[in-house]
């Protein structure tokens, strides 16, 4: 029965029990509402894949203001149109290998960014002592094959820990989890976002930044084949956007104190690098108010 259920989540009232399963998105949304996890207009993040125990990642994403949809099978979730009900801002696939062409094609058509954190596949203490870190075929398959699917930001997140019986389990490495759940984007994803909490354009900025950054890799891949000088003007603008986004937004230092308003304004300045018609995750009235006005 457990494997037949599309979605799952730890029971907040009984965290030590086996996670709860849900056969419909509507049933899962009701669970979120009843347990204080529903956040109107918050970014929706799908978590999937077998290469790590996701409870720590799910909790951190929820803590930073996202709604998380952990699913068993990405292929089934797309085929059953569950993903269309969620309309995710991003996918996190805890992968070792490719997701498959049908999934990749769907994500590309819907302009949904894909993140694939890595499992170092050994005890964390051994990995931290080893100056080589990951190496060999396992590293290549863990990084290169997800990038073929369009995954962005390869990042070692999961490692092995021993339990009391000496058995190994893969969990998120705490200090790396803090870094992976993008500190800068987390400032855009507090528990309450949007009008009445921060600003009415809050969710639009978050979703568009994710979507636009997903296209940066496509432009970089094309540039590696034909050369940057041969790119079209829009692709060149995506390269420019990506460079500024990584340096100014994702590169925010731990001691740099930036208010939510300042982060939103910066987001608009970066998005304004791109042609207006490329900003397809933003309502037209919001575009009229903010595009190239910060």
What does this structure look like?
This protein has 294 residues and is of the alpha/beta class. It has helices at residues 25-34, 55-63, 74-79, 82-86, 101-110, 124-129, 136-148, 174-180, 183-186, 202-226, 233-250, 260-271, 284-290, and strands at 7-9, 20-22, 44-48, 67-70, 90-93, 114-123, 152-162, 168-172. A hairpin with a 5-residue loop joins strand 7 (152-162) and strand 8. The protein is globular and about 60 Å long.
Number of strands: 8
What percent strand?
15-25%
Total DSSP helices: 13
Q: Could you spell the SSE succession in H and E letters?
A: EEHEHEHHEHEHHEEHHHHHH
In the predicted model, the low-confidence regions spanning at least 5 consecutive residues are: 187-192
> What structural class should be given to the helix and strand makeup?
alpha/beta
Side by side, the strands of the main sheet go 4-3-5-6-7-8
Global mean pLDDT: 83
Helix content: 40-55%
What is the CA–CA distance across the termini?
Answer: 52 Å
- Form type: globular
Q: Gyration radius, to the nearest Å?
A: 19 Å
Largest sheet: 6 strands, mixed
